[in-house]
Amino acid sequence: MDTMRDRFISTTTRLLDEDARLALVLAEISRDGFRQAERAHPDRVINVGIREQLMIGVGGGLALTGLRPIVHTFASFLVERPFEQVKLDFGHQGVGGVLVSAGASYDWPSGGFTHMAPGDVALMDTLDGWTVHVPGHPDEAERLLRDAAHGKGDGDGDDRVYVRLSEQSNDRARPVDGARFLTVREGRDGVVIAVGPMLDGVIAATEGMDVTVLYAATVRPFDAAAVHRAAGRCRAADVVLVEPYLAGTSTAAANDALVDLPHRVLGLGVARRELRRYGRIDEHLRAHGLEPAGLRERIVRFLSR
To answer: pLDDT at residue 114 above 50?
Structure first.
């Protein structure tokens, strides 16, 4: 199976052929994959070199001309390093675009901490009007990317979308629609929300437990109605969030969804502490307690209190 990043390259190459309004802005990363697109559309495939702030600025400038920019690099260089440009050149100027990341939390461990961005979604959450997709399978990534590329006119320019790709993937795709959380399993002892590539681990971790499992491939906007509905059917409104980025990123959104119910929320995800050994993805999962055994231990402990 191809990776989400592979699918992003092939899908975006086709989208550039199909829609003359689309433009792609790169900062060296993934450039080799877009050689064909660069030859076919030299005026709409722009590589700025290792200048990430410029990359965002160029994307915002293209949006001001009426184009729909797709801007791509590693999450740490797409969200963290040029954050001021994301805030101003897209948000403040009221234009839309699609930011597509790779790498993210710990997907390239040998790249070290400079290439890790577990706080990217939390950082984007400080900005108004961004949709955030966290697909769990390449097929989901393709669907969400296609929807994002078309954009939505809303009177404030096209919408702004962040698509967070991962090297991790669930075994199969789910019928995501870019809005709703999906019900994977129903139970009465609590609700576990699995985000993106965390779903398979959550299913394994909750095997035999009487819990509802919701699947979220789009986390902003947060599907408060689905969480409220699922929690309201349980014996107690206890909710566990399992996110592949900074632990607790969505706990405020879950609390807001349950404001009229007595409830408890546990946020599981990447810890704030820095792991200073490269290791492998599976070792990072275990270190953060995000493998099935670690998840089950913490979910059982929380729900049994």
So the answer is: yes
Q: Distance between terminal CA atoms of the chain?
A: 41
SS3 of 7, please? helix
Written as one string, the DSSP assignment of 155-195 is SSSB-EEEEE--S---SS-----SSPPEEEE--SS-EEEEE
| CATH architecture, domain defined by 182-303 | 3-Layer(aba) Sandwich (3.40)
Rounded to two decimals, the pTM is: 0.96
Q: Which of the four pLDDT bands, split at 50, 70 and 90, describes residue 110?
A: confident
What's the longest Cα–Cα distance across the chain?
60
Distance CA 71, CA 78 (A): 8
Element containing residue 251 per DSSP (H, E): helix 251-257
In sequence order, what DSSP letters do the residues of 69-131 get, joined into one string? EEEEEEHIIIIITTHHHIIIIIIITT--EEEEEESTTTSSGGG-GGG--TTHHHHHTTSTTEE
pLDDT of residue 72: 98
Q: Which residue has better confidence, 176 or 278?
A: 176
Confidence bin at 127 (pLDDT 50/70/90): very high
Residue 292 has pLDDT above 90, yes or no: yes
All CATH 3.40.50.920 domain ranges in the chain, comma separated: 182-303
Q: What is 4-164's CATH topology?
A: Rossmann fold (3.40.50)
